Amino acid sequence: MCLGVPARIIAIADAGRMLAVADILGERRDVNLSCIAEPGDDMTGQIGQWVLVHLGFALSRVEEADARITLDLLRQVDEAEAGRGHLKASLLA
């Protein structure tokens, strides 16, 4: 099963390569923005945006409320499976 995870863009790592730093479940990860931005775009406008990340690529923008609901549901599933921390580790692997 493939799973996209909501993340918040917190910084631009390399505007020329369209790379950002995103917060995913409290962890910082490099994310490629080439699926949601055009070359030459002002990347600073991406900071603070919520995106859906899969395999290191931001595939689409999402509303903050939807992102938070999804993250909460993922946490609930993790807790229900008695694998607290397992979900976070598997999503960030």
TrEMBL record:
UniProt cross-references to Pfam families, sorted A to Z: HupF_HypC (PF01455)
GO terms (BP aspect): protein maturation
InterPro entries: Hydgase_assmbl_chp_CS, Hydrogenase_HupF/HypC
Entry GO MF terms: carbon dioxide binding; iron ion binding
Alphabetized Gene3D superfamilies for the sequence: 2.30.30.140
Residues annotated as signal peptide: none
UniProt family annotation: Belongs to the HupF/HypC family.
Protein name from the UniProt record: HypC/HybG/HupF family hydrogenase formation chaperone
Species: Azospirillum palustre
Gene that specifies this protein: hypC
